[in-house]
Structures are given as C-alpha cells and as structure tokens.
Amino acid sequence: MEDKQLASEIVKFIGGKENIRAVGHCSTRLRLTLNDEAKVEKEEIENLEGVKGQFFTSGQYQIILGTGLVDRIYNIVVGSQDAVNTNLKEDIYANMSWPRKISRILGDVFIPVIPVLVATGLFSGLINCINAFGIPMDANVLAIATVLMKTAFTFLPVLIAWSAMKQFGGSPVIGIVLGLMLVSPQLPNPNDVIKGLVDPIIFSPFGFDIQIVGYQGSVLPALVVAIIAAKTEKFLRRKVPDALDLIITPFVTLLISGLLGLFIVGPICHVIELGVLNAAKAFMQLPFGLGGLIIGGTQQAIVVTGVHHIFLALETNLLADTGFNPFNAMITGGIMAQATAAFTVGLKTKNKKKRGLYMSSSLPAFLGITEPAIFGVNLKFGKPFLFALCGGASAGLIAGILKAASTGMGVAAIPGLVTYLYSSQAIVHYFIIHGVAIIVTFCLTYIFYKAEE
After folding, report:
1. What one-character-per-residue DSSP string does 164-219 give?
2. For tag attachment on the chain, is the N or C end more exposed, with fewer CB atoms within 10 Å?
C-alpha cells in the first residue's frame, strides 16, 4: 500500500497520467518524458517519503528512488488500467542531439554486456591475487581459471554483435553468428600477426592488398557490422514474401554483412579503433599524472550530461588489449569523492530527516552508483559537487603518477577492491587513491560548505 500511495502521489504531482508522454527506469531512477514540464510540482515530489531527489536533464524528468523501489513504482505506474507509453527510448532518441544519441546508443549496447565483463574482471582479480601471494596452482586448475578469465574478452565481438542486433531491432541469433564469424579460428589472431607468428590472409582485388585477420577482443568492427546487419534484415523483412522470409532473409543478411565485415568494415574499423585506443593511452600517460587529473576531475561532471557511456568502449578495449584498465583507477576516486561529499553534507545537516536522506544517498555512491548522491545532494547545493570534483581530480592525479590500473570495468569504489588484488602494490594504490579522494573532499566540504546553503 505504501508503494501504491507513493506511485499515486508521484503521478499526481507530475500533472497526472495525461501529462506522461513516455516512462521508463534505470537501476535507481524513474525516467519520464512529459507533455508539459511546467505542470511538475518539484517541491512536492522532493518531499515525498522515499524520493531521494529529482531533476530535469536531456528532455527527461528523473526521480531518484533507489534500487528495488524504482522497479516497484514503475510497475505500479505502467500496470494500471490507463495505458502508458513505455517506449521511452524511442521518445528520447527523437529529441536528442547526435553526440548524445551516439553516447546513448553505445550505452544501450554495452550495458547488457557489462555484467559478464565485470564477472570476468573479478575472476581475473581473484586468480591474479592467488598468483601474487605465491600460492601454487595445478596446471589443470590454471587452465580452467584461464577459461574463466579470457573467454568473455576473446569472444567480445560475439557479445557486442548480439547486443547491437537486439538494440537495433535485428535477430540476436544473427548477431551471435556474425560475432562468431569475426573470431572464427580459421582467421589468424591479430596478436599473432603482429608478433610475426602467423601471416594474415591476403586478397588482392583490383590490385589492392586486403589483409584479413580475426577480431578477437575488438569492439568497433562488431558494432558496425551488427548495425548493418540489423538494418539489412529489417529491410528484407519488409520486402521478402512471407513464404520465403525464413530462408532468404537470414541468408542474405549474413552474406552481405559477413563479407562487408571481413573485407571492408572490419579492416577500416580496426584501424580507427587502434588509433583511438593509442590516443587514449597517450592521454592517460601524460607526464606528472596530468591525464589522471583531467579525467578524475571531469568524469563525474560528464555523468551529469549523460554522455559518459562513451567511455565503456574505451574501457572494454583497454582490457581486451592489455588486460588492465588504468581509466578505472583514474575515475574510482571521483566516485568515492561524490559519496564523501554527500555524506559530509548529511553530517553537517541539523534536520534529522534530511540528514538521514543525505547520508543514505551516499551509500549507493560508496558502492559505485553516484546518481542519488549527485542529483539528490551535491548538485542541489552546488559547492559539494565542485568539492567532490576537486577530490576526484586529486585522486586521478595520484592514479596517473602511480600508473595504477584495475583488472575490471563497471565496478568501482568499495566493490572495485577485488579488481586490484592482483598484486600487493595494486592494493596499496587502491587505498591511496581512495584515501586522497575522501580526505580532500571531506576537508573542503566540511570547512567551506554551510549547512542548507
């Protein structure tokens, strides 16, 4: 009954169901696009029990409810007799600029893949931890451990192609087959080609040499090929008679997109991917930790804009290429800094209800989810958010100087510890980075922020 009451109050204060154009949710926030944003009673919603914050961004009205509760409220809002449009993605895309649309597409493609990459990173961290402490491992046990550590990144194009096909309205199984084509064992591994262990397959149409290799661990070729395949399949579904659809559509889709992937899209995208990756590496390796300072000080501000998903491709490439993720080390302090700022604001707040709300908003941030802390507390008061960015910049600077790196992605702050267990030095780096973030942010917020400023 409490959930139903909260859902009813939210609907009432946003102007009723007739004001809802579309509704959706993420892990912590109810997301709505509205016909008339002026009808929203922000203060009333802010004061509802269970609401941790609210804000407008990118044409959306977002209400922070937290994990679990957001699912229940969403189900109540869309589950009543009055029909509510749940195709939020299409409604949002229609009003997005191209940079935001590209970032959002990357996020929609990568987010379903992140859990297995996180799990693989945790496996890698645990196995490397065992090796770091000199614990002997049987050869068979090591072989199984390698399977757990390497499979997701070896067959990364399969995961990307599957997710992209699903995102763009194609058949996911065709995406899986395309991804498997890109990593087929008949194709020489690009790492072996670079090392001179094997030769690439060479075709010479019209006098031009085209080198064909596998794309193990690559992202961009699989993404672009899957988009082409999805568009091709949808076109064929409209044109091919139903009696022939089952045979012709998959065959032509795989033939066109597969050949394009191996001969044209793959080689071009691989060169672009390597260029972007090398440029990112060079930036992160700037002297005196400057790359870490910039990344650590801006990443959480980029989260506010909603275009932070674009970094998922970079992190995935770094892990697939080197096995380590220095980008994670540069941003994890910024996440902890946002948590610290929200906690400190709560500590200085005299009103018991607000104090509890602000402190509870910091808990998800300590676990890696900063939106409740950012939008519910830090941005609301302004200075704490800026102080947290300073803390993140300081932590990123230290991460750059130390050349710290994680063995995973998608997991940071406290849970990220396990991805730094591969050596005693990495563990020390982890605690130094977070310690700097906490101390700098706490001191700035405690000294310069006035309660309810």
Report:
1. HHHHTTS-HHHHHHHHHHHT-TTSPPHHHHHHTSSPPEEE-GGG--EEE---TT-S
2. N
First CA to last CA distance, the chain: 36
Which residue's structure tokens are 């262990």? 197
- Identify whether 26 is a catalytic site residue: yes
Burial of residue 420 (CB within 10 Å: 0-12, 13-18, 19+) is: buried
In the predicted structure, residue 246 carries a pLDDT above the cut 80:
yes
pLDDT, average across residues 151-174: 90
Contact of 9 with 43, CB cutoff 8 Å: no
Block residue for tokens 């063995």: 407
Amino acid identity at 235: F
Rounded-to-integer distance, Cα 416 and Cα 327, Å: 13
42-58, pLDDT tens digit by residue? 889 988 888 888 888 76
DSSP 134: T
Q: Which contacts qualify for 414-417: CB closer than 8 Å, 24 or more apart?
A: 414/366, 414/367, 414/368, 415/367, 415/368, 416/328, 416/332, 416/368
> How far apart, in Å, are the Cα atoms of 217 and each of 114, 270, 273, 408?
14, 11, 11, 14
Task: Say if pTM beats, i.e. exceeds, 0.70.
Answer: no
| Alpha carbon distance 181, 244 (integer Å) | 24
Q: What token pair was written down for 174?
A: 């065709």
Q: For 265-287, write each residue's pLDDT tens digit.
A: 888 887 887 787 788 788 888 99
Contact residues for 445 (Cβ-Cβ < 8 A; gap 6+): 340, 341, 344, 345, 348, 383, 384, 387, 388
Number of residues that this document lists for the chain: 453
Task: Give the sign of the dihedral formed by CA 33, CA 38, CA 41, CA 42.
Answer: positive
Q: What is the pLDDT of residue 111?
A: 75
CB 261 within 8 A of CB 182: yes
Q: Is 297 left (phi over 0), alpha (psi -120 to 50) or beta?
A: alpha
C-beta separation of 200 from 262 below 8 A: no
More confident residue, 381 or 150: 381
Task: List CB contacts of 255: < 8 A, sequence separation 6 or more.
Answer: none
Which of 26, 269, 390, 443 is flagged as catalytic?
A: 26
pLDDT for the residue 172? 94
Residue 91 has what pLDDT? 67
Helix ranges (DSSP H) in 32-186:
42-46, 69-79, 88-93, 98-110, 114-132, 139-154, 156-167, 172-182
